[in-house]
Amino acid sequence: MKIQLHEITIRELVAGYRDDGDGGVVGYGGKLDIRPPFQREFIYKEKERNAVIDSVLKGFPLNVMYWSAREDGAYEIIDGQQRTISIAQYVAEKPGFSFNDLYFDNLARDIKDKILDYKLMVYVCSGTDSERLDWFRIINIAGVKLTEQELRNAVYAGPWVTDAKRYFSRRGGSAYQLGGDYLSGSANRQEYLETAIKWISDGNIEEYMGRQQHEASAEPLWDYFRAVIDWVKVTFTVYRKPMKGVDWGGLYNCCKDADLDAAAIEIETARLILDDDVTNQKGIYPYILTDDEKHLNIRAFTAGMKQRVYEKQAGLCAVCGEEFTLRQMEADHIAPWSAGGKTVEDNCQMLCKKCNREKAAK
Known about the structure:
about 350 residues; alpha+beta; seven-stranded mixed sheet; two-stranded antiparallel ribbon; 16 helices; 9 strands; about 45% helix; about 10% strand; elongated
């Protein structure tokens, strides 16, 4: 990996500055992608923008910026987008950005030159995908940090990421409208995109993005995502808040071909939602499909319950009859929770660890 420190004047930075909205933001003679696909929108308010221009006018140093060199000879900003756009908007007077009630064009020639000749310190990185990703993670330590997916988008930038962002990375966009109720996080921080890729790749996000990087269309990912959400809606017919953030893609991948009874599933879901022993309601959905109680975090017997039952049993295991200390024993449901047994003292027995493991294995 190669990392070089450059001094770049504002005059060079804003040369050819252009903001085409969805078409992108470029500068540095058209060679710098100021808003690559992984970056968020411009979020600086007037106070932050003014602080940038004030620092430049006073000759105070701005924080170092980070660019990534691309194979085509161009660059993209990894860190410094907000400062760059603040500077470029002021110099280009877009959109009507003034400082201390003065537009750039109103300034005296020497003040203009002072701004344009101001030097920015920029680290430029080039290297393999894995090397750049490691570097991006290291420098991502200040301000509003990039998410893991924003970092991946930087490394695997290309037509595929751009097209995928069209589906998954816009507030109120396609993914939000179809599946926003089922997803955690936010579209504009790339968390919807991360979730969809995680689902389709069984967690191998970077390997999947590496294979797709130069593809023109992300439509297969979008088709897969739609199939997942459609399957969820058909399988779990009543929407409830705990459905938000469930690993729906993982469940779809393993259970999409199973013969499922949606009516029976709804009856069981409603019962479990009302069960006080179920402490993880999100786990109801994988439990129904896999029958694995670990997803539910069944309410445990309290320390007081265990102490009282231990004393009633005189320290003897309820199965083998051997004597143990309380710490050597575990609380067990006499009537299993799956058979309707509740987590109450009357349904508790203390077993030695060996007997409890053997009972659980039966």
